[in-house]
């Protein structure tokens, strides 16, 4: 008798410090990095992301020792950018990117997740700039992201994957499509975060089927539709929305991950699928049982 569960043999599953409530390099509300590494390995994951630069040891030799003895490997680093501000922010951007890219490469990873800057503060909700870009800002965003993709590839041998994110300018289906249409596929790929895309009204399966060649990386996440409806109605910023529990444990939320994984497998390319359940801040004993259950759920999906 054969199993009905598909084998997702092109999907490499991992998790990230984010799933342990880690948003900052150093914060008393976060678990120590040693505990994160112990627990992510204990939950059955082999791949991790670096998380906020400075949370994990930034010395490659030490980090290699700490990860390898736990059977862990690094899939990507993460950087934050405000490239719609144009060439004026390039030097500041590169100063932030270069150290993280160097560590990412030293750890054997091939991807750099690029998160656009927030238009409102994720803690206070204070509006920092207009939520809509001007045509000139769109042109700057596209040109500077292509420049980042070229520089990161030439200097560090990494591929950038841009992460559509709530409360940024690359968020909805319309804006994600506009961004992809404006950028060179050879230089710019997408990190599709299923939770953020659903948060902003998008359909992950449709995006994968429409822009398959641009999908370079996945973040697996779900939103609670009832809490999301409240958050949207009340115009709650992303940080406080996470505090309300808008990002929930799979398979309780949307989108359903089975069809997303099936669509990703059908692309016939190797893809990382990194679990990220935003939970900042959270009690220190909360993440590990969730991580174990989530890993079990993904195994039941064939991943």
How would you describe what is shown here?
Strands 1-2-3-4-5-6-7-10 form an eight-stranded parallel beta barrel, surrounded by five helices. Strands 8-9 form a two-stranded antiparallel ribbon. Helix 5 links the parallel strand 5 and strand 6 (189-193). The protein is of the alpha/beta class. The longest helix has 22 residues, at 135-156. It has helices at 33-42, 60-68, 90-106, 135-156, 173-182, 194-199, 204-210, 225-234, 238-243, 257-266, 287-300; strands at 11-15, 47-49, 73-81, 111-116, 159-162, 189-193, 215-220, 222-223, 247-248, 271-275. The protein is globular. It has one domain (11-300): TIM Barrel. It is 40% helix and 16% strand. The protein has eleven helices and ten strands. Pfam families: AP_endonuc_2. This is 2-keto-myo-inositol dehydratase. InterPro entries: IolE/XylAMocC-like (IPR050312), Xyl_isomerase-like_sf (IPR036237), Xyl_isomerase-like_TIM-brl (IPR013022). Residues 37-281 form the Xylose isomerase-like TIM barrel domain.
């Amino acid at each position: 008798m054969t199993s009905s569960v598909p084998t997702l043999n092109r999907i490499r599953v991992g998790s990230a410090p984010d799933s342990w409530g880690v948003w900052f390099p150093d914060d008393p509300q976060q678990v120590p990095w040693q505990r994160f590494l112990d627990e992510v390995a204990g939950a059955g994951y082999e791949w991790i992301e670096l998380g906020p630069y400075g949370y994990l040891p930034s010395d490659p030799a030490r980090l290699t020792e700490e990860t390898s003895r736990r059977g862990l490997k690094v899939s990507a680093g993460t950087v934050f950018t405000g490239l719609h501000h144009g060439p004026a922010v390039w030097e500041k951007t590169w100063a932030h990117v270069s150290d993280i890219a160097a560590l990412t490469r030293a750890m054997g990873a091939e991807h750099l997740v690029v998160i656009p800057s927030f238009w409102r503060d994720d803690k206070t909700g204070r509006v920092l700039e207009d939520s809509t870009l001007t045509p000139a800002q769109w042109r700057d965003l596209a040109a500077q992201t292509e420049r980042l993709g070229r520089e990161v590839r030439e200097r560090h041998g990494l591929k950038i994957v841009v992460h559509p994110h709530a409360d940024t300018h690359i968020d909805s289906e319309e804006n994600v499509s506009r961004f992809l249409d404006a950028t060179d596929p050879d230089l710019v790929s997408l990190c599709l975060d299923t939770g953020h895309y659903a948060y902003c009204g998008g359909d992950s399966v449709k995006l994968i089927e429409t822009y398959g060649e641009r999908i370079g990386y996945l973040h697996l996440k779900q939103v609670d539709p009832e809490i999301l409806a409240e958050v949207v109605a009340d115009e709650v910023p992303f940080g406080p929305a996470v505090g309300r529990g808008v990002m929930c444990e799979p398979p309780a939320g949307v989108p359903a991950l089975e069809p997303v994984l099936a669509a990703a497998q059908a692309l016939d390319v190797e893809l990382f699928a990194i679990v990220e359940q935003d939970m900042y801040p959270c009690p220190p004993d909360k993440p590990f049982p969730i991580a174990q259950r989530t890993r079990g759920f993904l195994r039941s999906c064939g991943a």
